[in-house]
């Protein structure tokens, strides 16, 4: 047995084993991040569709399916129509939402706490709450939450939209109450609490003066903030900003051998603080195990 161990040590030195270990998949290795979803919408910082890409604040908020890019929230998946990186906006559309041409079962729009803080609907995104009860809180205690926008009133939706006209017809030509309001209203009160059966959303409302409801832009525009993490320096050096999936610390990912540095030109393995990066806990434990095994074998032999 000792002869077999001696043969193993001589033909496969400990240094070789460590080299294989350190550059194996157990070591921290980040592949390059995809920059588009199906060659359609560009994916740049702070967003990412691969884990470890973009900012950790936006982790797992986007999903690239076989056909479309989706924004994920607790209430469902919303199709991403566009991302404007200059204006820092992301436009989404709810396929289950009622519009001027289609009436669908009502549901709530719910964002996570962090989503509500870092990328809430923009001020020019309006929620239209439809077919509300006369006992609705927004028509009584919270009536100040309702407003008209760009000279429009709720009556236009009932009179100008095929789908919403059904509410008008159902109660003997008396139009049911409705309300134009902002995101904060639906953020804190569900549709059941609001006592309204349906909602729709419209964005770019500042440009809708004199435009009939059938031509309104239905959907939602989210305004996101850009984390200050030193990504500009990384980008100028040819890298792509990402993060460590374990520590969520900022990393700069470079081409070639998937180097992870503060900036690609430096050529050193360092994190955003400039210090040398530590190996993952799995690799550290494996390193200690291999060194200990090697030492024990040499003592025995």
SSE inventory with pairings:
Layout: H1 2-11, H2 14-22, E1 36-37, E2 41-42, E3 62-64, E4 69-73, E5 76-84, E6 89-93, H3 113-118, E7 126-132, H4 154-160, H5 165-170, E8 179-181, H6 183-188, H7 191-194, E9 196-202, E10 220-223, H8 231-236, E11 240-243, E12 250-253, E13 260-261, H9 281-300
Antiparallel strand pairs: 1-2, 3-4, 4-5, 5-6, 6-10, 7-8, 7-9, 11-12, 12-13
Attribute tags:
301 residues, alpha+beta, 5-stranded antiparallel sheet, disordered N terminus
What does this structure look like?
The chain is an alpha+beta fold and 301 residues long. Helices cover 25% and strands 19% of the residues. The protein contains nine helices and 13 strands. It has helices spanning 2-11, 14-22, 113-118, 154-160, 165-170, 183-188, 191-194, 231-236, 281-300, and strands spanning 36-37, 41-42, 62-64, 69-73, 76-84, 89-93, 126-132, 179-181, 196-202, 220-223, 240-243, 250-253, 260-261. It has a five-stranded antiparallel sheet with strand order 3-4-5-6-10, with no helix packed on it. The protein has a three-stranded antiparallel sheet with strand order 8-7-9. Strand 12 and strand 13 (260-261) form a beta hairpin. The termini are close together.
User: Order of strands side by side in the largest beta sheet?
Assistant: 3-4-5-6-10
Query: How large is the share of residues in beta strands?
Result: 15-25%
What kind of sheet is the major sheet? Answer: 5 strands, antiparallel
* Oligomeric state: single chain
Beta strands, count: 13
The first-to-last residue Cα distance is: 10 Å
Order of helices and strands: HHEEEEEEHEHHEHHEEHEEEH
Helical proportion, percent range: 10-25%
Q: Label the structural class.
A: alpha+beta
Average of pLDDT: 77
Shape: elongated
Low-pLDDT segments: 1-12, 14-30, 267-300
What radius of gyration results from the CA coordinates? 28 Å
């Amino acid at each position: 047995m000792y002869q077999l161990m001696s043969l193993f040590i001589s033909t496969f030195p400990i240094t070789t084993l460590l080299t294989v270990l350190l550059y194996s998949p157990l070591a921290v290795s980040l592949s390059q991040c995809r920059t588009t979803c199906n060659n359609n919408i560009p994916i740049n910082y702070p967003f990412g569709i691969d884990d470890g890409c973009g900012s950790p604040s936006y982790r797992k908020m986007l999903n690239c399916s076989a056909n479309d890019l989706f924004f994920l929230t607790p209430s469902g998946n919303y199709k991403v129509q566009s991302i404007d990186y200059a204006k820092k906006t992301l436009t989404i559309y709810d396929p289950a939402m009622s519009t001027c041409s289609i009436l669908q079962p009502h549901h709530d729009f719910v964002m996570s706490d962090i989503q509500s803080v870092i990328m809430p609907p923009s001020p020019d995104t309006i929620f239209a709450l439809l077919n509300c009860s006369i006992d609705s809180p927004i028509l009584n205690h919270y009536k100040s939450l309702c407003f008209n926008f760009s000279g429009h009133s709720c009556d236009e939706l009932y009179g100008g939209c095929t789908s919403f006209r059904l509410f008008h017809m159902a109660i003997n030509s008396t139009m049911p109450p409705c309300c134009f309001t902002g995101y904060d209203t639906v953020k804190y009160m569900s549709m059941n609490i609001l006592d309204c059966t349906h909602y729709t959303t419209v964005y770019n409302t500042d440009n809708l003066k004199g435009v009939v409801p059938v031509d309104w832009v239905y959907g939602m525009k989210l305004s996101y903030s850009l984390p200050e993490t030193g990504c500009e320096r990384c980008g100028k050096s040819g890298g792509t900003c990402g993060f460590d999936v374990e520590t969520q610390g900022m990393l700069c990912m470079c081409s070639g051998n998937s180097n992870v540095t503060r900036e690609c030109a430096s050529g050193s393995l360092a994190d955003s603080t400039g210090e040398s990066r530590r190996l993952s806990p799995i690799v550290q434990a494996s390193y200690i195990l291999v060194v200990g095994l090697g030492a024990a074998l040499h003592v025995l032999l």
